[in-house]
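Justification of resources, computational component.

The compute hours requested in this renewal are based largely on the per-chain cost of generating structure records like the one below. Each record pairs the submitted sequence with a full structure-token output. That output is archived, and it is also reused by downstream analysis tasks.
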Amino acid sequence: MTHRPTTGIFPGTFDPVTNGHMDVIRRGQMLFDRLVVAIGHNPAKKALFSQGERQQIIEQLVREQCEEHVVVECFTGLTVDYARKIGATAILRGLRNVTDLNFEFQLALTNRAVADIETVFIMTGEAHAFTSSTLIKQIAAGGDIDRLHRLVPPAVIREMKRIQAANGGRIPLRLIDHFQE
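The structure output for this chain reads:
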């Protein structure tokens, strides 16, 4: 029996990338011959970082913490369409809690029925079970970014401080037009 190479896709907005995301990437890389961290655009969410900024941060973290077969790419549109385009054999998803499980289970069944793609779930590490990018942005908007050191990588804190300094001590959340990136 010949080994068929596998490609996994770990999609998300990653705005910002958290230590929980990196935990899933590090553990998920062992499941695939190639893992694509796919940074999507969600027009309904207010963004802290542009897709390009998120890609640069995650690429740096992947170089420092992961193996060579992990790559970072940006996409627009439906995840299943992008997964098909890159030949992904499965979607990798991290689960933090039962609420995530309910949502992700429904999404996984839909993706299998509509796009014939499987989903692989990894439980996040206990230290990351309460962390979300939305929560991170809310805390950062309060001003004391250093409080986030256990939740996000140092590169994210540096970039948040850069944004804060450029905006008079505030973290503005803005809608970014993905066509401008």
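Residues 7-131 form a domain with the Rossmann fold fold (CATH 3.40.50.620). Residues 175-181 have pLDDT under 50 and may be disordered.
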